Amino acid sequence: MRYEREYSESRTINNRLAKDSAHKKLSGVCAGIAKHYDLPRLAVRIAAIAALIMIPVATGVAYVVASVLLPESRYH
């Protein structure tokens, strides 16, 4: 039996979730999430704004916690 996973060429196995300081608007949380999951930054930011409008307290707390706990990206 062979256990193989397919990974795209651009992503590495050690890809960790971190704030993206090169493309940040406020603290880099949305840009870091977009980079980690290989999504467009604009789509993640629009989703974050929509979540902030629909459930402001939970989204605001989650954003602040993520901005405090996520490390800065070492690579740009």
Structure description:
The protein has 76 residues and is mostly helical. It has a domain at 29-69. Helix content is 49%, strand content 0%. The protein has three helices and no strands. The protein has helices spanning 29-37, 41-54, 56-69. It is globular and about 35 Å long.
Keywords:
76 residues; mainly alpha; 3 helices
- The SS-based structural class is mainly alpha
What is the number of helical segments per DSSP (H or I, 4+ residues)? 3
Q: Give the averaged pLDDT, no decimals.
A: 84
Low-pLDDT sequence parts: none
Strand proportion: under 5%
Listing every helix as H and every strand as E from the N terminus to the C terminus, the arrangement reads HHH
Q: Count the strands? A: 0
Query: Can you tell me the overall shape?
Result: globular
Largest sheet: none
If you compute it from the alpha carbons, what radius of gyration comes out, rounded to the nearest whole angstrom?
14 Å
Topology:
Blueprint (H helix, E strand, L loop, with lengths): L28 H9 L3 H14 L1 H14 L7
Helix pairs in contact: 1-2, 2-3
Kindly summarize this structure in a few lines.
With 76 residues, the protein is an all-alpha fold. The chain has 3 helices and no strands.
